[in-house]
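Re-running L-threonylcarbamoyladenylate synthase to confirm reproducibility after the cluster update. Everything else is unchanged from the original entry.
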Amino acid sequence: MAKFIKIYPDNPNEKEIQKVVKILKEGGLVIYPTDTVYGLGCDITNSKALERIAKIKGIKLEKANFSFVCNDLSNISEYVKNLDTSSFKILKKALPGPYTFILEGNNNLPKEFKKKKTVGIRVPDNSIALELVKQLGNPIISTSIYDEDEVLEYTTDPELIFEKWQNKVDAVIDGGYGDNIASTIIDLTGPEPEVIREGKGAIDML
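Result of re-run:
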């Protein structure tokens, strides 16, 4: 059964963060808060954990469109091809924030994603998520956790999330109520930025 770990976003407790990082390093799956909906994540370098997430989502790993949660722009640049000035300006303005940017991946992508030409990148404006990535030392692969409820697409209450997911994952972080609007997805691989999905992030600022 999963651990239920309370972490306050205003001042994430180092000891609790380390508990979660240890679980991630050991190949565990963790549900954690972001600045949008709660996410299901694992260490990007752990093949077994990646397979587990793909299995939960019912998709083949090589076909999965998972996001990479990074903690800053330099962290992003390790996995994407050189950004042009206009793309860099957009990222600098929007991040950390409720956006997923689709960018061209480079040769540093884990072997499971080598065939993919593009990668979705997130730097959420949430201190718990950013601290996890920072302490882990590399990005967390992430995917939103959907709800079967047709009215509520995303569950926002960590206790309800724990109830539902406790036998599928290794830890659920209670970082307070989540949002129920997903991130805005913007494709930066073409000549002009293209909005793929309008979510929480405003698009007029871009």
